[in-house]
Structure prediction request, 285 residues.
Amino acid sequence: MSPLPSAPVIVNALTIDVEDYFQVSAFATHIARDEWNTLPCRVERNVEAILLLLAEADVKATFFCLGWIAERYPALIRRLSDEGHEVASHGFAHRRATEQTSSQFQADIQLSKALLEDITGRPVHGYRAPSFSVGTANPWAFDCIARAGYRYSSSIYPIRHDHYGVPDAPRFMHDSRPGLVELPIATVRLFDANWPAGGGGYFRLLPYRLSRWSLRRINRIDRQPAMFYFHPWELDPEQPRISGVGARTRFRHYVNLGRMAPRLRRLLADFKWDRVDRVFAAGTA
Ligand SMILES: [Zn+2]
Prediction:
């Protein structure tokens, strides 16, 4: 890892996908949707912990909120907006776009947008698909996102992964449809491949220094802002354990949960961060 040249400080986009531990796609075959109502919710306290971290660092972020959560915790959504954070949409029911017809998908993303706008009294411009489930297999989904009135999508992780990812997608902001830009999750380009640098399980699994090096490289070599994401349940080592899941899923979900809060503190201190609509104002205004 060679030293990198200094350059003007670039502001990166910090994002949080607001969903609870039992809604993650990797558990979908173990927890039926009609069980969601019976499980203890942890999202409110976990988002509050995130708000404290952000306040300590004086950082504003973008929260991609699930409609299902917003319906149950409207005061939490209102608080995000009132504290100066951007409220964006993660859809309503956390169904992958690949498991829906275009009309089902359209209804889901319109419902969550309307609900979040109703709660906050502010327009919602951003959308992120559950599990990055839009891409070359379902280009119609981007037409739906544009038609629903979103200005930006952050739904593509340009990496190779067994559950998601479009490895050859553009790595940075690009036009998707008229009036809609795509803001992909950060990757670092090395050895003719894209490597994950924008969060998810990789941020918990890999040493922090590697994440920091990757993000610096994006800012200083690519001279681009990075799009970073995490989930409220990633800061919650006490969350109830889901039984019966395979070893790989269990490892991915639970690895290093206890290290997340101190790591995020370092991340917030080591880089400049802001909400998506301000970082990418040129494309999303
Ligand atoms: Zn999600």
Notes: DSSP finds eleven helices and eleven strands in the chain.
